[in-house]
## 1
Amino acid sequence: MVTKRFPDEPSEPSAEPKPPAGQSAARPARPPAPSQPPFTTQEPPQPHPARVSRRPALQRPSQHMPRTLAQVLNDANDSVVRGDLSDFTPQPTGFDPLDGLIGGGLHKTELVLLGGAQGIGKTIAALQMARNIAMRPEQFAFYISYEHTETHLMNRLLCLESVNPPEIDTRNGLKLKDLFDTIISQRARELLGRDGSRAGSLQTILRENPKTSMALARLNKYADRLIMVKASPAVTTLSAIREMTARLAEATGGNLTVFVDYLQKVAIYPERAESEEDKITIVVEGLKDIALSQNIPVLSIVASDREGLKAKRLHLFHLRGSSALDYECDIAIIMNNKYQVLAKDHISFNPYAAQQFRNWVVFTIEKNRAGRAMLDMEFQLHAPFFAFDPRGQEVRQQLIDDKIIES
């Protein structure tokens, strides 16, 4: 693989040093080139120049320098006069009831944590939020995935677009197997065709098939504003994330939201941690610093610890490294399967009526620095299509003993 450089990286000198007088003019051996920073092998795609915001990036005063309140007010006033209202405009996640409870969406400088047990739909929710943000003109989403390749995420998005949230029309929904079968069968027909025509491209296959054409058209509306990278715990370190984010924030005029999937996989080289909790502390503090220094929202998925996997209902304190996570984050959202947290021993429990809750996920805002906490919203999960119904609703059942009571 050819290592790419960011545009502003200095190039290596081309001129060789001249030998001292009296010595042979033979060309000296060039010393071995230093190893490149880890992130250079994981450079994300550059945003399409036609879609990059033409608004210049906000020129902020030097960080960590004292300013009077009058200076802060004057700087904010200058931004408003220029028509720059980005500091006052959150980025809606597209999950409408949830946005209403967290002040309209994701705010700049804030770190949001999304926690839950394995298989609850954390990646589905985060990728759908990234897609919703990237659909807006001049807004970019940067999705860092330690779990899936960019191609797999693209295939998930094609399935999601086939049901077209928030409409969620599953009658024309495309499952992952359906997508693969469509591509393979069409490719086989072209290769075995009697006319000997050249096989078509992937986009041609998707565009000409009635089951996939609309999904591809919707995906193409934001394809150059959703930036993805397949991260590696050995390569994509916290420093690499900081460097890539800084360059993308500059290239997009600050119109960027970062998603990390997931926090515990972020490496901290060359730093060293004495324990798992110490490492998570360094990572979560680093992600919060990225949000502050780049003036962007950062959302990170967080995995549960062993106790959380055994618990009937997951909470913030069940997340790995919970003490640091609790202190550093601005908003913490915990996901639980609604059927699993029903109080089945309650007198009003109806096992037949409760079956409908198996595909519903409760989003609990367990921490909210700018508003009320311990609020519960529920969203229906359409797992075969990698999509939530973002319309959702408040949980109507009572919360007793950390369980939802079916009424």
## 2
Amino acid sequence: MGQNEVLFERAQKTIPGGVNSPVRAFRQVGGVPRFVSRAKGPYFWDAEDKRYIDLIMSWGPMIVGHAHPEVVEAVQRAAETSFSYGAPTKGEIELAERICELMPSIEQVRMVSSGTEATMSALRLARGYTGRDLIIKFEGCYHGHADSLLVKAGSGLLTFADSTQNAPSSGGVPQDVVKHTLVLPYNDVAAIEEVFQRQGDQIAAVIIEPIAGNMNLIQPSPEFLSAIRHLTSKHGSVLIYDEVMTGFRVALGGAQSLQGITPDLTCLGKVMGGGMPMAAFGGKKDIMSKLAPLGNVYQAGTLSGNPVAVASGLKTLEIVSRPGFYECLSGQTEKLMAGLKQAADEAKIPFAVDSVGGMFGFYFADQVPTSFEAVTQTNIEAFKKFFHAMLDEGVYLAPSAYEAGFTSIAHDNEVLNVIIAAAGTSFKKL
């Protein structure tokens, strides 16, 4: 028995399913999870010391590569002065100022420790600000595991849940909670127009992944985004951009800078902490001023603005702000997708690809899907076989057909060539 199997067997005795986040269990693809022992640049090594090219990069945050020496140094320097104070620091102000500078829609920002905290708090704030209860989310979008958002949710829930319309995607979520959540199809303009016509004055907020990454990579149509922005403005609802995944990942100003949309609130995470547990939500000053201690919407956290995470985030944002960073990252990701597509075409496998910045999606289908329903129609069995063939070749893909993939600035041409060659071999096995 290999070391990964030994560890997985041992983990299952004290950790439910042997993992601390469901998708890591390899349930959709089958097989034994790889237990990571270390990582550097575009690679990680498992418990058996086998090296893999990493194409999830901790689900996005490791945009400058694993263990970047400048980030490591910043973290070490911060750690020497203690790990946590539970009191304000100068670093928090610097990070807040930098975020507001890079995303002009954010006038004020509150730091938290996870993407789930950011979205949960943003929704509570939107409800407190508007005095309304209803929220709209979109099918296949995942906004963390807060109760009211676990309805037809994406990410690991697509692997595990049997969702019916407006039924909770998770046990332990009361129907009473999700009755305030309306779920609409992604990219369906008519559906959102109809709901606003019927219940516009009751809708507190619309929350959206501006580029969905939790049902694989799905891009919104300009008409869809335009309709949402117009309707929320007209009816006094809060538009929340969940950029936990896309913020500083697809562009320096996030997806909103590419789409020309100014949301009312934005949720951030992943990249802004450089891989440390850190997230934030922010937006218009008149909305943010409803937060305690100024207003009556309560939110708190001992580890919010953690000094070590702040140091990691500040240094990461400094690196990604350097000239040419995103041009290089986007170019490499596009090159990778073109290479995979060519390898699939040569093997006569129906295959489509898409990418934005350092985020990508590939689909065993004739064309790129535009909705959750379209993603479920792709060839999931082919994906499972491809996943394991690539794993054997030393390339680690997301262990689910419902997750986007991620590159880093460390994925240079040499690394891309190895991935594309591995794909050529793997497609032939399908």
